[in-house]
Specification:
The structure holds 2 protein chains of 2 kinds. By secondary structure, chain A is of the alpha+beta class. Chain A folds into 3 domains: about 210 residues, 3-Layer(aba) Sandwich (Rossmann fold); about 80 residues, Elongation Factor Tu (Ef-tu), domain 3; about 100 residues, Translation factors (Elongation Factor Tu (Ef-tu), domain 3). In chain A, a hairpin with a 2-residue loop joins strand 12 and strand 13. The longest helix of chain A has 19 residues. Chain B is α/β, with parallel strands linked by helices. Chain B starts with 6 loop residues before the first helix and ends with a helix. Chain B is globular. In chain B, the strands form 3 sheets. A 6-stranded mixed sheet of chain B has the order 5-4-1-6-8-7, with helices on both faces. Classes of the chains: A alpha+beta, B alpha/beta. Chains A and B meet through helix 3, helix 4, strand 2, helix 5 and strand 18 of A and helix 2, helix 3, strand 2 and strand 3 of B.
Chain lengths: ~425, ~325
């Protein structure tokens, strides 16, 4: 494991159907890594009143969740081993909360998709996976979560047949993943309840020689920042910031670098004005620095006064490609269906523009993975759409860059975040 | 307050790049607030979390020149909700720090809400912690704040773990956990209607340990309550209750002297210290690594009443 990888926190989400044991698995990771403190454990032991403690109660933090025994919203949890820090986004499994699963996936380096063996007829070939397994894997793949791991859970319920069941379901998962274009980072047999292969190797399943889930998580790469390529910065905040004693207050344009790097002396172009300038000073977190790179927020002081404000983009001197029309994958999250022709707000970088969905080309069937003709997208559906924005935007393909290729779509009447857009290609 | 131990020697397994990443994210969120809202404010209680957020805000909006001092002013005022039951050391620290930094402070006094009749106490020594919400919402309305920056962390409590970084509040200031907006990438949907507002939490992803590591690394000033000192306390239900005007001993209880520090500072009626000899941030880091009781479990009387007490208060508008 390289040093760089070792020290970056891994953000991963857990997904699966209701009752697949996500919360128990997270509780297990926290419990085994001693991230649960004595008073929290006491509370669980009191609730259990003598029987086995319910680790899922650690993560279900809302009253309604405890009442209904399901996870409604994303919960964020933290634990650390000597090798690495982890941030878990515990995403709900129930279909009506897919938008929260999408929320969790958008910020994650990895996805752990739980497969509940007790819900599958693993003796009949080919094994049929549950729709939610397919949906969650697909969502993770669509949002380009870099690593997707399958954890086949509750194998303790069929200890004697665990090897055969694991083999059959692994085969089905590999086949599904192949069709969907997913390269699984691993398939791990676990019992979150008993603890097998979560953090500690199973004492009974000697047929499995691969890594435990935690061992696997230790090796997965974090973030996908690109330090190569041309400079691109969405301008987040512009302010006058003084220089000591001079009374001179140059304007500093701040923004997190999407890709590339910047140093004093570089020539840059501002979009949409098209004006160019030379970078006089690069600032970072209250100090003047030599250079900033992707992932860092750079403050640029330019050598001349340009019209530049929040929502603009700063790029290398080469002209920025912009377009008003583009094709995108749309994950629809609103109970009101996506409507062709209606005006929505779009957010790209730090810019808000009005836009229309001009066409819905297809809907992705999560069972067959086929794209079928569609005229509307309902809540939790995913499709291919055409977008027309009211102003030209420097959109990039999402596969090339998350910052340049991701947008949200907001209902102007309710202000709800209605959809997530991932740019396929400029039309 | 200077760290006396070499942090790297103490914690070989923790790399500062993790703190750099957390800092980068927090500064991004703070600038997003300043860019997206017209009248934001920073909730400043003088607690360790808000002191960390304040330092992050300095890094986001000021420049550090010769002498290492920050110059310039934050693009928003600080807001403190004063319950009238604050530890005197905290108020003294607040006023001194803000004067040193040249920042603007707005104080919402719970006492004023009592005078107005918007808060009614059932008895004079009742904990004022839960009543803060009323005063907070009145301050938001009076100053027309559209976003309040807070130092809440998701590792503090189960309901907090569920909250978005940009958390929408309706025109009653209420949090609606089932109606939270999806938070996609860092494309925050900060659109609001008149009367609504947002709460923004730049250090959502920090843990108590991260906070102490950062305090030690950045040499952030804190109220001296956080460091080991002798204090008169009463042992009650497994907690150390500090002896104050508003927390007198009950019949049969004895007052004793103990070496304590506070892990969190809040209203005097519900904040308890822990026994500890840790006298600086580095020693507290070392202690935090081996602690067995959560921050709230060890120190807060009010959260023990119910599994959902924090959630209920947040739904009413608590930060």
């Amino acid at each position: 494991m390289n040093d760089d990888l070792q020290h970056h926190a891994l953000r991963f989400l857990t997904a699966g159907s209701v009752d697949d044991g996500k919360s128990t698995l997270i509780g297990r990771l926290l419990y085994d890594s001693r991230a649960i403190l004595a008073d929290q454990l006491d509370a669980l032991e009191k609730r259990a009143a003598g029987s086995a403690i319910d680790l899922s109660l650690l993560t279900d933090g809302l009253e309604a969740e405890r009442e209904q025994g399901i996870t409604i919203d994303v919960a964020y949890r933290y634990f650390a081993t000597r090798q690495r820090k982890f941030i878990i986004a515990d995403a709900p499994g129930h279909e009506q909360y897919t938008r929260n699963m999408v929320t969790a996936a958008a910020g994650s380096d990895a996805a752990v998709v739980l497969v509940d063996i007790t819900k599958l007829d693993w003796r009949s070939k080919p094994v049929q996976l549950l729709p939610q397994t397919r949906r969650h894997s697909l969502l993770a793949q669509l949002l380009r979560v870099p690593s997707i791991v399958f954890a086949i859970n509750k194998l303790d319920a069929i200890d004697a047949d665990a090897e055969e069941a694991f083999g059959a379901v692994s085969e089905a998962l590999n086949q599904f993943a192949g069709q969907a274009g997913i390269v699984p980072a691993g398939i791990v047999p676990v019992s979150a309840l008993r603890g097998d292969n979560a953090t500690v190797r199973s004492a009974v399943w000697h047929w499995y020689s691969g890594p435990t889930l935690l061992e696997l998580l230790h090796t997965l790469p974090a973030t996908d920042e690109r330090h190569d390529g041309a400079l691109l910065i969405p301008v987040q905040y512009v302010a006058k910031q003084g220089e000591q004693g001079t009374g001179h207050q140059p304007r500093t344009a701040w923004g997190r670098i999407a890709h590339g790097s910047v140093r004093a002396g570089d020539t840059v172009q501002v979009f949409p004005s098209g004006q160019t300038a030379v970078v006089a000073e690069v600032r970072h977190a209250g100090a003047v620095v030599d250079a900033c790179e992707a992932g860092q927020s750079a403050g640029l002081v330019l050598d001349r006064q340009l019209d530049i404000s929040r929502g603009d983009w700063i790029a290398s001197a080469a002209p920025l490609q912009t377009t008003q029309q583009f094709a995108a994958t749309l994950a629809w999250l609103d109970t009101e269906p996506a409507q062709v022709g209606r005006k929505y707000w779009l957010r790209h970088g730090h810019r808000w523009v009005q836009a229309r969905i001009t066409a819905i080309d297809s809907r992705r069937d999560i069972h067959t993975l086929e794209d079928t003709d569609a005229h509307e997208l309902a809540v939790n559906e995913i499709g291919q759409v055409q977008i027309e924005a009211q102003a030209p935007l420097p959109v990039e393909a999402y596969v090339a860059n998350r910052i340049g290729g991701a947008l949200i779509i907001v209902d102007p009447a309710s202000n709800r975040t209605s959809g997530a857009l991932l740019v396929s290609a400029a039309a | 307050m200077n760290a006396s131990l070499d942090m790297n020697q103490l914690l070989p397994e923790i790399d500062h790049r993790h703190l750099d990443a957390l800092e980068e994210e927090a500064i991004f969120i703070l600038r997003e607030v300043a860019g997206a809202f017209e009248r934001p404010a920073l909730l400043f209680s003088s607690g360790k979390d808000s002191c960390v957020v304040l330092r992050l805000a300095e890094k986001a909006f000021k420049m550090r020149r010769q002498g290492n001092e920050f110059e310039g002013r934050l693009p928003f005022p600080l807001l403190h909700v004063d319950t009238g039951h604050n530890f005197p050391e905290v108020i003294e620290f607040r006023d001194r720090r803000i004067a040193e930094m040249g920042e603007r402070l707005v104080v919402g006094h719970l006492e004023d809400s009592i005078q107005r009749g918007t808060i009614r106490l059932s008895h004079p020594l009742e904990s004022r912690n839960g009543h803060q919400t009323v005063t907070l919402l009145e301050a938001i309305e009076e100053h027309r704040f559209d976003c309040l920056i807070g130092g809440a962390r998701r590792d503090e409590e189960k309901a907090r773990a569920k909250e978005r970084i940009f958390s929408h509040r309706d025109s009653f200031g209420q949090w609606q956990p089932k109606e939270q907006r999806p938070e996609l990438w860092s494309l925050f949907n900060t659109r609001i209607k008149p009367g609504e507002h947002f709460r923004a939490f730049p250090i959502s992803n920090w843990t108590e340990l991260d906070v102490w590591l950062y305090i030690a690394r950045e040499n952030i000033p804190l109220p001296n309550l956080y460091f080991a000192h002798q204090r008169q306390v009463i042992r009650r239900k497994g907690l150390l209750v500090p002896l104050t005007d508003v927390t007198p001993p009950e019949a049969g209880e004895t007052v004793e002297e103990a070496l304590v520090r506070f892990r969190t500072v809040g209203d005097m009626t519900c904040t308890c210290p822990v026994e500890s000899p840790a006298a600086n941030a580095a020693e507290i880091v070392a202690e935090t690594l081996t602690v067995t009781i959560s921050e709230r479990g060890a120190t807060r009387m009010d959260d023990r009443t119910s599994d959902a007490s924090m959630e209920r208060r947040k739904k009413e508008g608590y930060f």
